[in-house]
Write a structure and sequence with these properties.
By secondary structure, this protein is an alpha/beta fold. It has two domains: 205 residues, Rossmann fold (3-Layer(aba) Sandwich), CATH 3.40.50.1820; 103 residues, no CATH class. The chain is 41% helix and 13% strand. The longest helix has 20 residues. The chain is globular.
């Protein structure tokens, strides 16, 4: 009887462990019980759908065509570059899209650094953006752009990466420099990234269990610095005014921290509506996993000087270490590096002059 009880307990423990480790099935857009499909989508080579939005002047009259790649926990709707006055002045057509697993884009369980670059290439083809187009990637979307430089350089007219996320295991970094930057993170993020790199099958469990603190970014409590909190307070106030205008008679007393909470909640409702695993968690697995190439081994895709690569980084960024970013720029001399003083991770979102500077440098440059 005793051994039977032990066996039952072991079976129950195994069943519980399996359930805790396995992420739930994604709630596919357009499926029974899943979110509805509200916007346009293209069908990709493997049958998946990619949701997108077009902004700015018509592509038929545009002088420049840009694909925007959003960051962690974001989506196609946050195309802040489309608000620049330069869009009309320079004749810019922009396309933002939900990366796989985000918003209304189907998940890609086989997603790799290469596959998302090929998705972007196919998006450009399906929308008839021409043989070459520009790409702007922000944060985790900026990291995605490294894959475009590796796998589809022949399709690029120019590139801008804004505070692209660093993978601490890229072999081109000096070990001492990477280690020092790694230990500047919150302890909980050090553990979360170890799990993502060394045990990716445990990423879902690690970020949903209650015993240890999960990734601060995935949990909505990243290491934003003072400049970022000021940006988020403005964004939150703007969103609250738009979404909750019917209760505008109330007196709001939000601190910067609660402003961020309000902003993040509104933002992630759509971004992660198909599930956290195929959006946030797979981002971590890909971004901090083992890559097939080292960005610091890449060659200049514009040796003919018909395009340029720009890397923008705030010197007060609490999420992406400026020491590692500047090292990449020194290693790859063909990158035009722009370090923004007293700026955090979100600097383009709060300052239209920064957005204009990014567009001007990418599109006009020395022309």
């Amino acid at each position: 009887m005793f051994w039977k009880a032990i066996a039952v307990l072991l079976i129950a423990l195994l069943a519980w462990s399996y359930q805790a480790l396995c992420p739930p099935t994604p709630r596919l857009c357009g499926s029974t019980g899943g979110p509805s499909v509200e916007g346009p989508r293209i069908k990709l080579r493997d049958g998946r759908h990619l949701a997108y939005l077009e902004h700015g002047v018509s592509k038929e009259t545009a002088n420049y065509k840009i694909i925007l790649v959003h960051g962690f926990g974001s989506n196609k709707n946050e195309a802040h570059f489309a608000r620049s006055a330069l869009v009309e002045k320079l004749g810019i057509h922009l396309v933002s899209f939900d990366r796989p697993g985000y918003g209304e884009s189907d998940p890609d369980p086989k997603r790799t650094v290469e596959s998302i670059a090929l998705d972007i290439e196919e998006l450009g083809d399906k929308l008839a953006l021409g043989p070459k187009f520009y790409i702007i990637g922000t944060s985790m979307g900026g990291q995605v752009v490294w894959g475009c430089l590796k796998y589809i350089p022949h399709r690029l007219a120019g590139v801008a990466m804004i505070a692209p996320v660093i993978n601490y295991w890229w072999p081109g970094f000096p070990a001492k420099l990477a280690t020092e930057a790694y230990y500047e993170q919150f302890p909980q993020d050090q553990w979360a990234l170890r799990v993502a790199h060394y045990a990716p099958s445990l990423v879902y469990w690690w970020n949903t269990q209650k015993w240890f603190p999960p990734s601060s970014v995935a949990a909505g409590r990243p290491n934003f610095t003072a400049p970022d909190l000021q940006v988020l307070a403005k964004l939150s106030a703007s969103m609250v005014n738009r979404v909750l205008v019917f209760i505008s008679f109330l007196e709001w007393h939000e601190t910067e921290e609660t402003a961020f909470t309000s902003y993040l909640a509104c933002r992630q409702d759509y971004s992660t509506q198909q599930g956290l695993f195929e959006s946030l968690h797979r981002d971590m697995m890909i971004g901090f996993g083992s890559w097939d190439f080292d960005p610091m081994d890449l060659d200049n895709p514009f040796v003919d000087r018909e395009g340029s690569v720009h890397l923008w980084q705030g010197d007060n960024d609490g999420l992406v270490p400026v020491t590692l970013q500047s090292y990449i720029a020194k290693k790859l001399r063909w990158i035009q590096y722009h370090e923004m003083p007293n700026a955090g991770h979100l600097f383009p979102h709060g300052d239209i002059t920064a957005t204009d500077a990014i567009l001007n440098a990418l599109l006009v440059g020395d022309k």
